[in-house]
Amino acid sequence: MKIYLAGPDVFLPDAVGIGQRKCDICRHHGVTGLYPLDNAVDLAAPGASMQIFRGNEAMMDAADAIIANLTPFRGPGADPGTVYELGYMAGQGKLCLSYCNDPASYAERVARSTKVTRGADNRLVDADGLTVEDFGLPDNLMMIHALDLHGSPLVMPHAKPVDIWRDLSAFETCVRLAAEKLG
């Protein structure tokens, strides 16, 4: 069984090492992890971004499942590339699992980065007057319910780990769940 390992981890300074740790955890549970940085691409070559895109889609096509890291990245929500990958796999009817190392609700996270108030109709609104999704979910309802319907509910720790990018406890829970469901 092959699992595509999506997430903003690829942007970490030690991204290759994190990918190796994730693949080791997968092997320990009897599955194969497909990490995006396994695709060798010359970043200075013309068309490098398209090579990355095609390589990642080929990995997803070859995978039986996805584990997506939805820990907030550069804002209150998940990395947009990871969200695309999760949607791509859900659209193919593949097993979708995910984790987030920040257990706060989406509305709480938005309030960390901008002023949030209650409007006259009791809706949460941000500094621009736009509605803030407030269902008590950890991210946008479309991702959360895609997981509910195409795999397993989002895995989150009870408390935010000291190092949200390198704590792989929730990731390992996802691997264990995937191995059970795929096996």
Comma- or semicolon-separated keywords:
183 residues; four-stranded parallel beta sheet; globular
Report on this model:
This protein has 183 residues and is of the alpha/beta class. Helix content is 40%, strand content 12%. The chain contains 6 helices and 6 strands; from the N terminus they run βαβαβαβαββαα. The protein has a 4-stranded parallel sheet, sandwiched between helices. The protein has a two-stranded antiparallel ribbon with strand order 5-6. Strand 5 (117-118) and strand 6 (124-125) form a beta hairpin. Helix 3 runs parallel beside helix 5 (141-150). It is globular, with a radius of gyration of 17 Å. The model has no long low-confidence stretch (mean pLDDT 96).
Binned strand content: 5-15%
Q: Which shape, going by the Cα principal axes?
A: globular
Main sheet strand line-up:
2-1-3-4
Radius of gyration of CA atoms, rounded to a whole number:
17 Å
Low-confidence stretches: none
Write the element-wise H/E pattern from the N-terminal end onward.
EHEHEHEHEEHH
Total DSSP E strands: 6
Q: Structural class per helix/strand content?
A: alpha/beta
**Which sheet architecture does the biggest sheet show?**
4 strands, parallel
Tally of DSSP helical segments: 6
Mean pLDDT: 96
Classify the helix fraction into a percent range.
25-40%
Terminal Cα span: 8 Å
